[in-house]
Amino acid sequence: MLLSHHEGKHSTEDAIELFKEVEKMRSPSSPIPVFTSDDWDAFEEALINVYGKIELPQYKGIGRKPLPKLVPLDDLKYIKVLKKKVKNYVFETVQRIIFGDPEEIFEMFGADSDSYIGTSYAERINLTIRTSLARFIRKGMNFSKTKRMHQKSIPTFGRSTLEIRTFFMMPF
User: Fold this and answer.
1) A Pfam family this protein belongs to (predicted)?
2) Per-residue DSSP letters for 130-162?
């Protein structure tokens, strides 16, 4: 299920805004969505800022007292899916589980015995958005020439996500 979109730069601040919007849309009784993205460090930092808690490490009696740390919530799940390419051909897909229990995540995705998490859902959404909204077709007649007109066209697609780098999945 796609929950939100945010237009902006690829910065940590914009990623935080996107995740805050997702959090506003989520019911308090529902679980935190599973987040997947490509290898972009701003997402990891933004997720901890939105779905994190402050924890004070235990003082061991020697030296300076430790400073509070921002750590992810126990039920936060985040996976980075990386595609390694040679001459525009994908020769390897690497999945890194950043937050969450690997067994639980693979079970949620229905991963096969090789524990493979693909990008087909996110790629399908990207293709649907690009083909359904004429303004997203590059070098086309309807291509948005100004940011203002581009922003006006987005709500016509419904509650879609234009943060193409991320896919959110609500667990059942």
Assistant:
1) DDE_Tnp_IS1
2) HHH-GGGSTTSTT--SSHHHHHHHGGGG-S---
